[in-house]
Amino acid sequence: MYNKPYFWRMPYPPYDQIAIYNSVERETDYLIFQKGMQLPAADIGHMRYSQDPETYDLIFDLKCAKEKISSTGTLENTTSVPLVREDVLAILNEICPDDFQAFPTLVRGTNPKFPPYELTNYWLINVNNLSGKVDTERTPPHRPHVLLPDHMNGHHLSRLADDRYKIIVSQTLYKALKKSKIRGLMFEKDLEGRDGLLPKDV
């Protein structure tokens, strides 16, 4: 029985369904969200922490029609940081409110072929801690990681301490998200626990 954390994977949508971070209009360095640390309340770069839609600073642009993404709970995007709908955010707040910070975003439809739209119900998730441990003795070179069990230090959502680009979730959070049946959420076991298939929607 698999008893280790799961990797949170982003979906694999067509290119026009990938939310592109608008770094021209907004100068916030998205790399600050990949450090696995709590961000201070003071402004960072040009980012404002107001939740007034008039002052949103994190803007993502999509080339697809609104209906193409209306049913998905998370958007693949160019920051490699989870961009989740408010129903996913509600589950995170219930299970692990101290493991992340949620930042409001503006998601815009910018393709002139479709009616324009603006969505304010997606949130960028800053995972604010590092935990988990890679079993270096059993992880083959240049292959996905093998994780050691019981190294999340009480967290349910973390960036992997040995590889900060990876996000891991506890069994508890995985089961809660799976039970929700929200489309677009994808997780996979570590190398040792995989069955050789691509990650599946929960």
Give me some keywords for this one.
202 residues, mainly beta, six-stranded mixed beta sheet, 2 helices, disordered C terminus
Model description:
The chain is mainly β. The protein has one domain (6-201). The protein is 10% helix and 25% strand. The chain contains two helices and twelve strands. It has a six-stranded mixed sheet. Strands 2, 3, 4, 5, 6 and 7 form a six-stranded mixed sheet that branches. A hairpin with a 2-residue loop joins β9 and β10. α1 packs antiparallel against α2. The longest helix is centred in the middle third of the chain and has 10 residues, at 86-95. The protein is globular, with a radius of gyration of 17 Å.
Summarize the structure.
The chain has 202 residues and is mainly beta.
Strand-pairing-aware structural class: mainly beta
Strand content: 25-35%
Element order: H for helix, E for strand: EEEEHEEEEEEHEE
| Main β-sheet, spatial strand arrangement | 8-9-10-1-11-12
Individual helix count: 2
Radius of gyration: 17 Å
Strands, count: 12
Main sheet record:
6 strands, mixed
The amount of helix comes to: under 10%
**Uncertain regions spanning at least 5 consecutive residues:** 42-56, 196-202
Number of domains: 1
Mean pLDDT: 86
What does the overall shape look like?
globular
Question: Gap between N and C termini, in Å?
Answer: 18 Å
